[in-house]
Amino acid sequence: MSDWYFEYEIQVNRPGLLGDIASLLGMLRVNIISINGVDEGRRGMLVHTDNDEAIERFRMIVSTMEHIHVTKFRQPKLRDRLAIRHGHYIPRDADEKNTFRFVRDELGILVDFMAELFKKDGHKLIGIRGMPRVGKTESIVAASVCANKKWIFLSSTMIKQTVRNKLAGDEFSDNNIFILDGIVTRRSTDERHLQLVREMMSMSSIKVVEHPDMFVQHSEYKIEDFDTIIELRNDPDEEITYEIMEKNQMMSESNEFGGFNF
Predict the structure, then answer these.
(1) What region holds the DUF3388 domain (predicted)?
(2) DSSP string spanning 17-63?
């Protein structure tokens, strides 16, 4: 009993092509869970069967069909499931396979993507890059809600600059999502906060670090420690730089009422 992802490129878009494929699946008693166009010229199907032999028979038959070219046939990955839901694949860095790119217009897909990551148990370290006010923190919180997880800010600039130096009660639960701002934490001189971050990093839980490149500077952590890196831009060509963010951070620190430390 398993799910399979089937994707094909249309060679000849004749009437009845989808019906023929659906009928073949029906005769083999393979259930179609969802169908959608996946990028231009391709169609994806998420199917389910109680008999994997039927999948092998289907694979052999469709490989001989002249009007389609099979591009993927595998047990579904997270990117496959999201492509079916949203109609296109999340772009991924060609060299760094764990780096995924989004633009602000795709916040719905980003939230969906992170929520699926958050639903998994155990340790996962996620970094998210992006300029100020692009939607990083809001997306993390929304994804936590979708995953039915409690989120805990260890450091943040969402409303005021916030630095936590202790947790209480169920805040130490492995089921929580721990969020920290890499710039705020790296510039913090509060040893209690830094110790809390070290404790959190050793927990078997999900951690999300905004500005991971700044977080790893002058620390025991490396960018290779991150399981997933997300890049969020206002537009595809936007450059992510840290000069403006560090300047905003320094201005915030110079403001007598600029932050909370608790």
Answers:
(1) 70-259
(2) HHHHHHHHHHHTT-EEEEEEE-STTEEEEEEEES-HHHHHHHHHHHT
Q: What digits encode the pLDDT tens for the residues 189-227?
A: 899 999 999 999 999 999 999 999 999 998 889 999 999
Q: What are phi and psi of 29, to 5 degrees?
A: 60, 45
Q: How far apart are the first and last CA of the chain?
A: 51
- 137-194 pLDDT, tens digit each: 999 999 999 999 999 999 998 777 889 999 888 898 889 999 999 999 998 989 999 9
**Residue indicated by tokens 């670090």:** 209
* ∠ CA 84-87-93, rounded to 5°: 95
Give dist(CA 155, CA 206) in Å, integer.
15
User: What is this structure's pTM?
Assistant: 0.84
- Tell me how far apart the alpha carbons of residues 18 and 23 are, in angstroms, rounded to a whole number: 9
DSSP state of 114: H
